[in-house]
Structure formats: structure tokens, C-alpha cells
Amino acid sequence: MVDPKLEEVIQFERTRPDVHGDAHPKKLLRAIVEEGNHLAKLSEQHIFSSDQFDRATLLQLFRLAAKYEANPGRFSTSLNGQILISAFYEPSTRTRLSFESAWHRLGGDIMSITDRSTTGIAKGESLRDVAEMFNNYGDCVVLRDSNEESVREMMAALRIPIINAGNGTDEHPTQALADLYTIFKWRPDLVTNEPGEKLKLCLVGLPAKMRTVRSLLKLMCHFPDVFSKITIVNDKQKNEMFAHGQLAQLEQAGLQIDAANDLYEVLPEADVVYINAIAWEGNAYKQYGKRYHLNAQSPLKSDAIVLHPLARSVELCTSLDDTPHNWYFSQARGAVFLRMALLTCLVKRAERVLDVI
Description:
Helices cover 34% and strands 15% of the residues. With 357 residues, the protein is of the alpha/beta class. It folds into two domains: 26-171 and 334-351, Rossmann fold (3-Layer(aba) Sandwich), CATH 3.40.50; 173-333, Aspartate/ornithine carbamoyltransferase (Rossmann fold, 3-Layer(aba) Sandwich). The strands form three sheets. Strands 7-6-5-8-11 form a five-stranded parallel β-sheet. Strand 9 and strand 10 form a beta hairpin. The radius of gyration is 20 Å and the shape is globular. The chain starts with a helix and ends in an 11-residue tail after the last helix. Belongs to the aspartate/ornithine carbamoyltransferase superfamily. This is Aspartate carbamoyltransferase catalytic subunit. GO terms for molecular function: amino acid binding; carboxyl- or carbamoyltransferase activity.
């Protein structure tokens, strides 16, 4: 007979929700009219920067992601016969596994590289030569590298698409896509002809150093009608928060950008709180804004949601996990379906799922 104490520990409940709030994608799916022609151009593009997207393409990507998420068991053969080269030369858990999960869920095969010391690069081989070999071995490449120029170097020699999965402190465009997808799942009315009240966003982070923050802000430039105000919270002066040209790009797009150093003054009016504390610099992670923390006692609006790209540290307390503010787990889950949508487009398989209910 199993010990009752052990019995209690080993049991789990499959039907327990893994997210809080209404994270189901069907409302977003219904809110966006399918216009698949906007996705066709992605089959001839590398995914390098959030700057390369336009509003129409973003909305169609989100719709396709919502279709996958609403019917996760319906689409399992879209990438049959396709091979993904998953090259992660910088530590990663969520990004690598979500890309690989996305590819597997659609029926494709994967070759993974998780240590550059096991490749020809360790012998001095150029990235251009590596890219030339990749042309022969796979159908798509996902690359994370602490060197900001690595993706660009490989792009120059590739005849198959490559996705920038994080290049140093520069960008992380697919994380930003997943972040914005989460916001629109929460408020699908914002992309309809009758949107509700605009959002006030509190962004705790450093745009000059954090690739997740930089890429997300670039995407938000396409939705000035969605955000009434974006407040950047950090312990730096405003002129230190932004890299050259960042603030000008945001303001020229019509976004109202404020800066603050007191988080608790901003929280009571924020609809969405996006918090990050680390940035990859050199060969290690560096933490910024150490005095900013969120927990269940923080003065959040009752209906505010909290997002975090994860992995987290002390800035995001686990006391928020079992509250309705927790949308960061939904954010991580949705990233799989967003990447399924993007990968389908890149390898010219979108026609297999468009117009399918």
C-alpha cells in the first residue's frame, strides 16, 4: 500500500488551469479578419528585427497563432519533411524549448546545437561558412548568440530563413511578438472597429540595454491607438534609459512616453505592467533596477495584468502566481503558438492552415 503522504505528493490534476484570467484565444481569433496575403512575404524574409513588421502582418500573425492555440490538436502535419536547425550559443530555456516545441507540434524534425565549442566555430570557422553548410542541412535556422553581429553575418550567406532568437543586447523580436500577442488575447477589443479604453503600460526595464524591451517598444510603434501612455520605470535618468534614436522613434510613431523612478507611483494607474531586470552583456547577465519588485501586496489595479519574459529573479515574487494579475505564464505558453505561426509562414506552409476553421 502506498504511504498516504507519498500518495498526496505524487498526484496531480490535469484539468487545473495553468494560467489565470481569460487567456483563451478564440475572442482574438474572431476579432481579426483573415487576410493571409499579408503573411506571404514572410516566406522570403529572415526574421531579424521588430522594425521589419507592419501592423497588418502583425495582426495576421496573431490570428494564425490564435488559430493554432484554439485548436492545438488539429494541426500536426504542417511542417512534415522540414528540418529546423536550432543553434543556441547563449543559455536559453523558454526560447529554445518553445521553438523546438512549436516545430515538433507541426510535425517537423530538429537538429540542435547548444554549445558552440562542439562546432567548427571553435576551430575558427567563419559564420558565413557555417551558414553555407546550414543551407544544405536544414530548412530554417533559429540562432541565439551573445554577439550582436552573428545573425547579420549568417544572413548574408543563407538561402534558407534564419530567426534572431536574441543577439546580445540588441533585439529579441519573437519574444516581443509573443508579448504583444498576450496583450491582445487579454484585450481583443483593441483590434476591432469598436475598441475599448486605451491601455496605460508600465514598463519596468532599461530600453538601452534590454533586447526584450527594445523589441517590444518597436512593435508598439504600430499601435499608437492602443496605448494612451507608456511609462518607463528605471533608476536611471531619462537620457540614460534610451539608446541613440530610440526615444525619437517611439515619439515619431505617436506614442506618449513618460519616465519615472518611483514604481509605486505608477502602478495604481497601469493596466499592463511589463517587468524585466536582466540583460545579456558580454558573456554574462547583468541585473538592472534592483530596487524594483512586484509582489501580491504591490498597489496594482484590481484588473491589471503582469507580464515578464522570464526567467525571473527577486523582481517578480511568486506570491503573484496565484492571482489574476499573473499573465506571464500565459505569455510563455502563447509563445509556442506564436512561433508555430511564424515558422509556418517562413517555410511556405501557411496555405495549409489558412482558411481552415
